[in-house]
Amino acid sequence: MLDAPEFAAALVAAEAVVDRGPVAAATALRAAGVPPDLAATALTQAALRRAAVGKFGAAAASMFFTRTGLEQATRAPVSAARARRLALAGATRVADLGCGIGADSRAFALAGLSVLAVEADPETAIVAAANLRGLDASVVTGDATTADLTGVDAAFCDPARRTAGGRRVFSPAALSPPWDFAVGLFTRLRFAVLKLAPGLPHDLVPPGAEAQWVSVDGDLVEAALWSPSLAAVPRRATVFRAGVAHELTGDAAPAPVGGPRRYVFDPDGAVTRAGLVGAFAETVDGVVADPSIGFVYAEKPAGTPFARCLEVVDELPVAVKKMRAALRSYDIGRLEIRKRGSALDVEKLRHDLRLSGTGDGVLLLTRIADRPAALLCRRGE
Ligand SMILES: C[S@@+](CC[C@H](N)C(=O)[O-])C[C@H]1O[C@@H](n2cnc3c(N)ncnc32)[C@H](O)[C@@H]1O
């Protein structure tokens, strides 16, 4: 179907009208003589291409998607960086075991690797094949756990995750292909990389592997495990900002503990999840007020991709009435509330504060020296 000339024509027509909304677009395609089934499929594809721009940029315009496949697909800058690293390490032929619509496979092929893409779901495999057309890649429809890996020197596996009742707790038992198969690739092949949910607990990281957490423009998007043959450091945080990757690496050593200071850094989710708050604190000569809380305090401000820098204006009383009075004295009307290590209900607090001023600020709810604390801050660099 994706190859058929009549589908290509219907897709061009659908892309011209998809922004009019589903009913008007379907009417326009019918009026242009496109059969209803073809029109529906073409409109779905056109809408998915629009939705995919955030992940794939301009390349989305020539790719194909399923709704689930797009949700699961890796963002292009993330897959491209991974593929480059694998190619630089010396891998030549990679098996993408559970390739989905082929976003990672595409990146591997574009980085110069030869790709064997394996996908259990036949419809998704057809879409992957369409996305890999013209590249050094072949798609096999079948079970990755029994795939023939002769001639392959690297494996990539991004297992699908079943979510029980919308829960986002990391569960190895919920993965397909299964966790044991994925981790077993570390000993089966020269190189292996696994993409996993960012909730990956540190105690599941296999000995000698590198665990990486990745965020894109502030959103924590994935964890990856690199086989010991690829591992350069125990832990890595990769923070993409405006398409540029920034790397913080280390070994999860704790940050020094000290009193709060004039500036406070709120680290990116990739840094905190990677356990690299200590490594980050070192870069700004900072301390934490509590070993279990990731706000980092420092005397000097700094522009850094790894954290937001805020200037502490005042420490406010934690009691609601007194906090409200203090915020009034600062004329605060718009307040961003962040909490780490506080049990306060942010939405209830916001409601109870009844803000009415004209200025804005950031309120950090936290703990300092084992007591609850509320720091009023202004955005720094
Ligand atoms: C998270 S998606 C992969 C997304 C892909 N990395 C991308 O960026 O487009 C996982 C895929 O694995 C497939 N899958 C699950 N179990 C499989 C198995 N045992 N063999 C082959 N494919 C499998 C699912 O159908 C799904 O398409």
UniProtKB/TrEMBL annotation:
GO annotation, biological process: methylation
Entry annotated with the keyword Methyltransferase: yes
Name this polypeptide is given: Methyltransferase
GO MF annotation: an example: methyltransferase activity
Domain of life: Bacteria
Keyword Transferase: yes
Entry-linked CDD domains: AdoMet_MTases
Domain THUMP-like intervals: 307-379
Higher taxonomy: Bacteria, Bacillati, Actinomycetota, Actinomycetes, Micromonosporales
Annotated organism of origin: Virgisporangium ochraceum
Keywords, in A-Z order: Methyltransferase, Transferase
